[in-house]
Each structure stands twice: as C-alpha cells, then as structure tokens.
Amino acid sequence: MPDVIENDFKYLTLDELQYELLEMLLEFDAFCKEHELRYSLDSGTLLGAVRHKGFIPWDDDLDVNMPRPDYERLLSIQEELPEGFHLVNAMNSEFAYGFSKLCTDEIRAQEPSYQGTLDEKLWIDIFPTDGLPSNDCEATKVWKQVHKATRHNVWASVNHRSEHGFRKVIKTFAGALFRLGKPREHMLSAISAAVLIPGYENAERVGCYVGSEGNLWTLPKDAYEKSISLEFEGHMLPCMSCWDEFLTELYGDYMQLPPENQRRTHCLKAWRV
Questions:
Q1: Please, which of 18, 65, 103, 138 could form a disulfide with 42 given CB 3.0 to 4.6 Å?
Q2: pTM
Q3: Cα–Cα distances in Å, from 81 out to 41, 85, 196?
Q4: Which of 264, 269, 268 is nearest to 43 (CA)?
Q5: Average pLDDT over residues 158-166
Q6: What is the pLDDT of residue 177?
Q7: Contact at 8 Å (CB) between 63 and 113?
Q8: CA-based diameter of the chain, in Å?
Q9: In sequence order, which residues have a C-beta less than 8 Å from that of residue 245 and are 6 or more positions away?
Q10: For 101-134, b where at least 16 C-beta lie within 10 A, e where not — what string?
Q11: Tell me: the pLDDT tens digits for 129-139?
C-alpha cells in the first residue's frame, strides 16, 4: 500500500504503521532482555497475539505492561535506551496520563486530542502494574481516587476540538476550571500514594491504577509474574500466564470480533521526520 499524501506530508498507511511499531517492540524486547526487565504484552496487543497471532487488523498502537519495580527501573535507566528512542510521560511533557510512552525520534504521530499541546512521536504505551490491597473494596477505592485525579488532568491538558456538541462544551468548561488548580501535581501525588498501598512486593494481587480502561482489572501476582511466550507477527514475546483471565476481565468473549462500528483506533496521522 502506498503512502497517503496530504498537506505535503506522506502519511503512513496502517500496514506501514504496524510495521514500524513492530520494529519498535522488538527493540524494546531486546533492551528488556539485556537489562533483565520484566514485561508482558498488554490490552489490545495481548488480545491480538491470542486472537490473531499479531496485530488486531485495525489496531494502530502497541501496549505493554511492567511490574512497578521494573517500570521504575526503566525510568531510572532511560538514558541507556537505544539511540533514537526516548520516554515521554507526565513528568517530562504535557502528556496527561500516569504511564509512559516509548517513542521513536524518526516518526511523528499526532492524535487529535493533543493537537497544539504536544508534538507526539510514534509510541508504545508502557503501563506500570501495581500491588493492590487484598480487600477488593479498598483496591477499588484507591483506583477511583487515581482515576478521578487522572480524568481531571486529562480534561485540563488536552484540547477538546475533536469532541462534538454538549460534550465539547462541558469538557472545555471543566478543563478550564481544573487548570485553575494543579491537576498534574494532584494526579502524580495520587499515584505516588496509591503505589504504596500495600506496595508491589507486599501484594498478593496486582492491577493497573493508571490505565485508560474504565475499570480496575485485578490478577493474582504469582500468575501475572509467571511469563509465557506467545506469537506476535512471527516473533515469540513475553506474556502473563493468566492471559485468559486478563482478557476475559477486559473484553468478555474476547475471541468474538466486535461490530465494525466499535473497531476503534487512535485516529492518528503519522509521517516520517
């Protein structure tokens, strides 16, 4: 498929975008092996490995997760990433969420929601997995605190031009109100407090406080940490052994293809720098 030419840019086709993302994932995999960092394919990427042995056909991103200790170590050695790669997160950019993106310097990839606020590069999402309280109600309470703080920061940080009607009015007005406080600092403070309850090493169950999902997934830590290999685009890559429980919790009957009108992407445009 040829590049799509628009506004003097040659935008990458979906096939080309997936090829570039796969190359990034293989670089990340090699880096993690070299530095003994644990990770698993996550969310739609894990679903793609199970259902399609590769990308979900319409998907335009990649997701991985890491145990919190490994994630923090990645942050501490990010200067050692391969040349042309860097991490983007809420601590070093206008990115609005509490996880990180592994980005390549070679390809610009712009989402509508960050147009005018953050010049994005093609990325892989990296989600930290945290230890959860043993009591489900307490875990949900902590997640709700982080989720609320994150939502406030997102509304304050991104533009809402891609929204429509009353939704656009509400989000624009609410975002302006949230900006009067310190939503980014509030979000980071809420995350810092959450990861200590009870702390990854002391937990029996794990989940992701900072994901973009609408709920908190939870898994036994021993099953999450037990790694197996699944095929992804012809390569064997690490995945949590409890992938079936994880995918069922996120997607229900995950082997069933969703209706075409629910096959969502990031609607990004990507081009070579």
A1: 65
A2: 0.91
A3: 19, 6, 27
A4: 264
A5: 59
A6: 62
A7: no
A8: 55
A9: 219, 223
A10: bbbbeebbbbbbbbeeebebbbbbbbbbbbbbbe
A11: 999 999 999 99
